[in-house]
Amino acid sequence: MASNQSNSSHETFRLFDEKPTSGFGFLDFPEKPLPPPPPCLEVIPSEVSANVKYTMEPVNLDGITLLKGRVSTQEVFALSNSDLVPGKYEGGLKLWEGSLDLVKALSSEMQDGQLSFAGKRILELGCGHGLPGIFACLKGAATVHFQDFNAEVLQYLTIPNVNANILKKSQYLATDVNECSSVQADTRFFAGDWGEVHSILPFVSSDENYTRSIPSLDQIAGYDIILMAETVYSISALPSLYKLIKKCVSSPHGVVYMAAKKYYFGVGGGSRRFISVVEKDGSFTASLVAEVADGSSNVREVWKLNLK
Ligand SMILES: C[S@@+](CC[C@H](N)C(=O)[O-])C[C@H]1O[C@@H](n2cnc3c(N)ncnc32)[C@H](O)[C@@H]1O
């Protein structure tokens, strides 16, 4: 599979240096100890230099047109095209199917009156291209914070994508002029590992157990809506991802939308594995909002989590 292709319908999950396996699950891939994660830092858009080639194309999602950029994994990370290198590059330069499923599910939730972004604080975890967060910007969110493991992904892909969709979309796609002229979201970009990035996110509780007790004003701050697509593939990362979500979600009305494959062959994570972590903890109710079984890859799902 080519990395960072717009047509990802036939994707399988592939690790850099992958060896042939029976393909039946995580026991095929005992996870190796990872290198220390890169430091947490906020990436400031005005400090981003454009020394990597970025090309842009439209992606149509059931009537919603967004712009997606393309950069070369070789140019950014000096890696040949690959999905990810655990602990070094976590796949953010490729557009994964789940993020498209998530945008479509969010749009459908809006149409059904189940969701509004107007005036809300949004956090997109593991954003890569950032299309769900960009969709939230276009739909009236007040604040959208984008997080990725790699600062380079934010610099060379997410920020240009946000600019393309919010600032330049009106020039590129004349029909979207009216929608774009009203976009006023405060966007910020944070790099770091899920185990540490809470230290730099602006609206985060320091007490991961606060959802069980009466929240303080700071804790109420949180994020109204957390979005994430294709972030639950690695079993070892699930606990830190889930802890982070609990620190970030606004209590008592915050919600989380998560898109993922039901199961990731070769690495063992998946939507069901993540939901079992959520259910074991008991702080959220989980409901399935979309299932995509188009025959092109593993079954994919979009879940919604509401604090109890
Ligand atoms: C498979 S990519 C998905 C990218 C994007 N959401 C999409 O669907 O196209 C996984 C994303 O999660 C992020 N990620 C993976 N492991 C992480 C970790 N331990 N800490 C922080 N971010 C991580 C990566 O940087 C990447 O953006």
Report on this structure.
With 308 residues, the protein is an alpha/beta fold. The chain has a single domain, classed as Vaccinia Virus protein VP39 (Rossmann fold, 3-Layer(aba) Sandwich), CATH 3.40.50.150. Helix content is 26%, strand content 20%. It contains nine helices and ten strands. It is globular, with a radius of gyration of 18 Å. S-adenosylmethionine binds at residues 90-92, 95-96, 98-99, 126-129, 148-150, 153, 193-194, 229-231, 237. Belongs to the methyltransferase superfamily. METTL18 family. This is protein-histidine N-methyltransferase. Its main location: cytoplasm. It is an enzyme of class 2 (transferase).
**Number of DSSP-assigned strands:** 10
Tally of helical segments: 9
Architecture, CATH level 2?
3-Layer(aba) Sandwich
Largest sheet: 8 strands, mixed
Q: Which distinct ligands sit in these coordinates?
A: S-adenosylmethionine
Structural class: alpha/beta
What percent of the residues sit in helical stretches (DSSP H or I)? 25-40%
The count of domains is 1
Distance between the termini: 41 Å
Low-confidence stretches: 1-11, 16-30, 174-180
**Cross-sheet strand order for the largest sheet:** 1-6-5-4-7-8-10-9
Q: By CATH's scheme, which homologous superfamily applies?
A: Vaccinia Virus protein VP39
CATH topology heading: Rossmann fold
CATH class: Alpha Beta
Enzyme class: transferase
Family: Belongs to the methyltransferase superfamily. METTL18 family.
Pfam family, one: Methyltransf_16
InterPro entries: Methyltransf_16 (IPR019410), SAM-dependent_MTases_sf (IPR029063)
